[in-house]
Amino acid sequence: MKVNMKGTLLASIVFGTLLLGGCNPLLVLDPKGPQAEVQANDTMMLIFLMSGIVIVVLALLVFMLFKYRASKQSPDYEPPHIHGHWLVETICIGVPVLIVLFLSFRTVESNYLVESAPEQYKEEEPLVIYASSSDWKWHFSYPEQGIETVNYLYIPANRNIEFKLYSFGPITSFWIPQLGGQKYAMADMVTTLHLAADVEGEFWGRNANFAGRGTAEQTFDVTAMSPEKFDEWVEEVHATAKPLTEDKFEELLEPGHLGRSTYTGTHLEFSPAPEHNHGNSASPNADHSEHAGHEE
After folding, report:
1. Which one has a higher pLDDT value, 78 or 249?
2. Which of 248, 273, 282, 274 is nearest to 262 (CA)?
């Protein structure tokens, strides 16, 4: 059976265009915070750099194949033996070395930027949030505010958020694509992650590391709001939410999926975070008070 290659290629291009047209924009390329912007810029830089390298290499390949293609020589023809050209060898070795040096410098610079507090918020006191994972949920403790939430996160916009990450089970990965890169949460140590939202809005977070059969649904919602609305939310929680008891927290740690819930007090009072800290030292916990209230 004769295959119409041109028709097949055209159909593939049309189908691919329609398929990609229905996709949502990549969240990692739609940054809403300074850390995510650094990573998005680096990603686009790498895409353009690698595309340029591929185009140049393919162009040289086509040129070499055409210029030095086999000619109609006699069967006993032997090409002359020549040494390599110094300029060609210098380019072939020097250009990759320069590319590696550039990428190494850019990587070190970017790592420093994303590992430290955002420059524009360094003068302000960060909001410290302990983000701990269990099978298969996320617990967010606000020691300064005396609040704990499950599977959702409220943060003030335009402020450095200093996350203290650890796990009550297997290693997980805390990731909010539009605010910054992922970082691991482990059972025996606390890791520090600095993020910030430049705009108000709703974002999506998840566990980016496989941690059992419930990993796919181990997600959480993030809402960035004005500082005034954040303070109003804190007051509302203290006026309506139930206190988090040790028995209730043990119940929350049982494997399974839960909806969103809100409590006053934090589990740090009776189940503190691991003492070993990787990165910045943990801020001292504020005094917590318990209030009566509701569970969503």
Report:
1. 249
2. 248
| Percentage of the chain exceeding pLDDT 90 | 66
Please state, rounded to an integer, the average pLDDT across all residues of the chain.
Answer: 86
Side-chain half-sphere exposure of 241, counting CA atoms within 13 A: 24
CB 136 within 8 A of CB 257: yes
Mean pLDDT for 49-71 is 89
The pTM for the full model equals: 0.78
Q: Is there a domain that residue 292 lies in?
A: no
Average pLDDT of the segment spanning 126-144: 96
- Euclidean distance between CA atoms 164 and 275, whole angstroms: 12
Is pLDDT above 70 for 222? yes
Q: Which amino acid is at 135?
A: D
Structure tokens belonging to residue 14:
């049309």
Main-chain phi, psi angles of 261, to 5 degrees? -145, 155
119 is a domain residue: no
- The answer to whether residues 279 and 226 touch, using CB atoms and an 8 Å cutoff, is no
d(CA 184, CA 68): 52
Residue 33 domain-assigned (yes or no): no
Q: What are 27's two structure tokens?
A: 């969240």
Instruction: Tally the domains of the chain.
Output: 1
Range of the domain at 250: 125-278
Query: In the numeric block, which tokens belong to residue 74?
Result: 């006699």
Cα separation, 147 vs 60, in Å, equals: 62
Q: What is the length of the chain?
A: 296
pLDDT of residue 228: 97
The reply to whether 47 falls in a domain is: no
